[in-house]
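Full entry
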Amino acid sequence: MLEILGTIGANVISLPGILGLALGMMTRRVWLGALMGGIVGVLATFVFAHGSFAAVDTFELLIAIGIGLCAGSVGSAIRIKGATV
């Protein structure tokens, strides 16, 4: 259980969370922001596995993609709401 929570927390404060949010704030289309966040999740996992998909754990990859999708969607929502104020 602690490993799951640690993986989620590490992805939130690492590249998928922060960069996904920033890329999501660049567009007003929620699906595009989520897509960019998901791509960042895949790339971050690949980079931290030293460029080898053989060293990537499937569970970590799924969590990174999920966090990236959520962060990108939230970034797009911030952009949409901030533009109307």
About this structure: The chain is about 80% helix and 0% strand. The first helix runs from residue 2 to 12.
